[in-house]
Design goal:
Blueprint (H helix, E strand, L loop, with lengths): L4 H7 L3 H4 L13 H12 L4 E8 L5 E12 L5 E10 L1 H23 L3 E6 L4 E4 L2 H6 L3 H4 L10 H15 L7 E6 L5 E12 L5 E10 L1 H12 L1 H9 L4 E6 L2 E5 L1 H7 L3 H4 L11 H15 L5 E9 L5 E13 L2 E10 L1 H58 L3 H32 L8 E3 L1 H19 L2 E6 L6 E3 L1 H17 L6 E9 L2 E8 L33 H4 L1
């Protein structure tokens, strides 16, 4: 076995590796049957041609075309074969892609409702999609190879031939209409869109076209023409704006249309373009919708936009338009409705709905607040009264003046505690009703903190809690409500002392931080779990809300401040 350089490159072997191999060792399994078919022919001293698949040294498979010629010995007997192999892998891939592409586009053309066709340079059909039969009554096979003029109504032959010749010269031909003849003699109006068919070198080899059945549209146009006068009479008295637009200009508007935009009909008809009546922000969508109807992409559409009146005022418009043929050319017939009042009413309704939702949330919050008050405060209201009642009853039975005095002091303390609870409830109610107004003025924090310390001194002494005050000597004045600040600081410090351990410590710091004054209160008390920190300002919230809680309180302090 011998080979040239091209064979070595094709198969990927060096010469000594290739020499001695049986030809079938270089073939894929799929091609062995081809060898079995062709080799007997070679042995009969006849040449053969075939396409086979080879396997290169690296395992890669390639498609080749092989031309084989028989070799004979001195006696004229078969002694071997001379083979010429050509790599056609790329060509086969392209052929496969072309077949797939042809199948895909043929599937599209055969399912689309319009008729797709191709013509050669002589005007003869080279392809017709199946819809041709629905449109004309002829099967595509009956017209392949025949001139397109044979299907045209006589008066359309010459004008269409002229357009065909111009198209072959490279001119762009816009949409146009013709009538074709059905097998039964009926005339079918169609709209044609035709473009050039070119080869790989860009040379025009024919025409590619789409024919659309426009019978329904023509019927509508005819009805429009027949009733145009009737329409005009009705339109003049209509309460909605009516317009006819063609070539980007209003060809007709009724009085109501002109009234909506503050113009006279004479100022608009044949003079104004739609852009002059549309707010710049909405022009893009209006322009797009006009284009889609004129192009035939949409027959009709309904949408809203913002318009501009002659006096510059804004109007909200609901528009509806349909594509029609008017005097042989595409146009848009439509109506406009001024929905400005409706839009305002919708906005007012939306605002009212939002107010109603807010009111509902507030009422729900008040209802929940009521339930929380009953649940959380009833214990705090009953306990002082029970204590006071018990102490008073004991004092009435006690003969020892000193013991009687202590009983009465305990009763007074319980009543003072109840009075504070009631005061907190009243204050919280004022905030809930939003009737509490803050009096904002310049304040010195020092006297406010001093007053809080004096009020808490008895409780601190009782619990043996030391209060360490660290107020910056250069503390500036602030703006705020003195009463509200006193209440907030008092509640924080009261809790710090109340929930502290015996012998504990409370540190109060006040210092300027940027443009604010920061007050920090730190204690050695029981603390607040991390998972409950985000709830400490909720009305009536308590860290320990059980009925057997160790410390009393309403949970009002933080929320009220």
């Amino acid at each position: 076995m011998g080979c040239n350089r091209g064979a070595l490159d094709l198969y990927g072997y060096i010469k000594k590796e290739l020499i001695g191999k049986h030809v079938t060792e270089l073939m894929s399994k799929n091609s062995l049957s081809v060898f079995e078919e062709k080799f007997p022919i070679l042995k009969k001293l006849r040449s053969t041609e075939c396409e086979i698949e080879i396997v290169r040294k690296n395992g890669e498979k390639r498609k080749i075309w092989r031309k084989s010629v028989s070799l004979v010995d001195e006696d004229g007997n078969f002694s071997g074969a001379l083979c010429y192999d050509r790599d056609i892998t790329r060509r086969k891939e392209i052929e496969m892609q072309l077949r797939e592409s042809e199948h895909k586009y043929r599937s599209i053309s055969e399912t689309i409702r319009d008729v797709i066709f191709t013509l050669d340079r002589s005007g003869k059909f080279t392809y017709l999609s199946p819809r041709f039969e629905n449109l004309t009554g002829y099967s595509p096979g009956e017209f392949i190879g025949r001139s397109f003029t044979e299907v045209l109504a006589p008066e359309h032959v010459e004008p269409t031939l002229e357009k065909f010749r111009r198209g072959l010269r490279g001119e762009e031909i816009p949409l146009y209409e013709v009538e074709i003849l059905h097998r039964d003699g009926r005339r079918i109006p169609v709209e044609l869109s035709v473009t050039s068919l070119v080869d790989t070198n860009g040379k025009i080899i024919g025409r590619l076209g789409v024919a659309r059945d426009i019978r329904d549209r023509k019927k509508m146009e005819q009805k429009f023409i027949e009733s145009e006068e009737k329409f005009r009479t009705l339109a003049e008295k209509s309460l909605i704006g009516i317009y006819l637009m063609q070539d980007g200009v209003f060809k007709y508007v009724n009085p109501k249309f002109a009234e909506i935009f503050g113009y006279s009909t004479d100022e608009i008809i044949d003079k104004m373009k739609p852009q002059g009546l549309v707010h710049p922000e909405d022009w893009k969508i209006v322009e797009e919708n006009i284009g889609r109807r004129i192009s035939g992409e949409l027959d009709s559409i309904r949408y809203n936009f913002i318009g501009i009146r002659k006096d510059g005022k804004v109007v909200f418009i609901e528009a509806y338009g349909s594509r029609i043929m008017y005097r042989g050319k595409p146009a848009i017939l439509g109506s406009l409705l001024d929905i400005t009042d409706r839009k305002k009413a919708e906005d007012e309704l939306k605002k009212a709905h939002e107010k109603l939702k807010r009111a509902y949330r507030e009422l729900k919050s008040i209802d929940e607040l009521k339930d929380n008050i009953i649940e959380n405060v009833s214990h705090e209201l009953r306990t002082p009264i029970t204590i006071a009642k018990g102490m008073i009853e004991l004092s009435m039975e006690e003969e020892d003046p000193e013991k009687r005095r202590k009983y009465l002091e305990s009763a007074i303390k319980a009543l003072i505690r109840q009075n504070r609870v009631v005061g907190d409830l009243i204050e919280m109610a004022r905030f809930a009703k939003k009737c509490k107004k803050f009096e904002i003025k310049k304040l010195d924090l020092n006297p406010i903190i001093s007053l809080v310390l004096r009020r808490l001194e008895p409780l601190a002494l009782e619990k043996k809690v030391k209060i360490d005050v660290r107020i910056s000597p250069s503390l500036p004045n602030i703006e705020g409500d003195a009463e509200a600040l006193h209440r907030a600081i008092y509640n924080l410090m009261h809790n710090a002392v109340k929930f502290n351990r015996e012998g504990g410590r409370v540190v109060v710091k006040a210092a300027q931080k940027n443009n604010f004054v920061e007050v920090c209160i730190k204690d050695t008390g029981i603390g607040i779990p991390k998972e409950k920190l985000d709830k400490i300002f909720d009305p009536l919230f308590q860290v320990d809300s059980s009925t057997s809680r160790r410390y009393s309180g309403t949970g009002i302090g933080f929320s009220g401040g």
